[in-house]
Amino acid sequence: MLTASQLINNPALLKLDLYCRGARLNEDSTNVESAGGRKVLRTRAGLGSGLELILPKELWTNVPVVEEFTVNSPYDIGLVDPSGSSDAVRIRYHDVEVAIARLSPRPGWYGKKTSTGRSMTSIGTLQGTYLGIYPGTVCQFWTRAKKENCKFCSVGLNLGMDDANEKTLDDILEVVQTARAESKITYVDLNAGHAEDESYLDMLEPIVARIKRETGLLVGLQAPPHSDLSRYDRLRALGLNRVSFCFELFDRECFERVCPGKANTYGLDRYLRAIEYCAKLGSKGPISEPWVTNGEMIAGLEPPDATIAGIDWLVERGAVPTICVFRPLRGTDYENVPPPTVEELAPVFKHLFEACARKRLPIGLAPNVHVSLVMLPEEARFLSEDKSLRRAYAFWRTPRAAAARALLWAKARAVSA
Ligand code: SF4
To answer: 193 CB under 6 A from ligand 1?
Structure first.
């Protein structure tokens, strides 16, 4: 069992344990909002549902507070000043204070509507400090005659609740522009589920083009692997900055059991082929647009060794792993499956940082991007005792190293041209 002093001294351990055990919230949602915090939203990203907080060392997080398993959590969270005049919250573990955190600020535009009368939060919401948008119709694994949704996913449950069913390009751009002006976002993440006719990239491409053209913000997308891989060259040429493929589980038996739609329609190998292909697009232009390929997995639904093997597979190919922690969301097929423990997951996240840092993958470089729904590789550095790797990571982020990277990049371009 973790001790209070371990949690006080290690914000990554705290972030991870809060994902695994959740917390009892000593406030109702109104108090959180009166103190400037964000409402607990059921977003369509499929994994999030909790309280958005900023932990010490600027680790943004989303703490489960509504699921059954949180009832017996050793953590409780409450406002430091119950009158709501401050955004500070106290996190206690077995009644011992382990951190003072802050509520993630609720943007003013959360109360606004688009020109067509839609509430802006039904178009997109901040997840940490970036804007997340799910522009299309619901993932069609949920609407097949025999449902084949991933067992942990809540996307099909949330429709018509906090998220709009149809979003026009104009609505989307209006929310992006507003979030850029008022929340100073630097990155927009577009998300799409399965479409029987493979139209997800047709739907996302014009949105990418318009956001790039009109705002110049960093833009990424997460969608199933398209059968025509040249589509990713086209997106890269448009200025897309990130592509993410959620294969979730590296263990094939677990993948087939947990994600029947993905297994029957695409198969794990199609995800892996797309990642391998996209990871090589970095040296193609436009040179001014950074490029990263992510492989996304969910930890806690396969043996930790399998997730570690998946991390190694990705890192060897130059892709950056994104690891979510399984959360048994209310109403999902897995709502009664116990969440993983920090003891199981800490070695996975420690490995995540060390593998990325050894390979010098571009982690922690995007400006002002804090992510609440996953622990990023660079945040997991607090779990590593390897001082030389931590020092190398810190150096890699300095302006001198940035100049060296730019030089290497230019050389690589010259060679590949
Ligand atoms: S592919 Fe799976 S995880 Fe993604 S939206 Fe569909 S059911 Fe959810």
So the answer is: yes
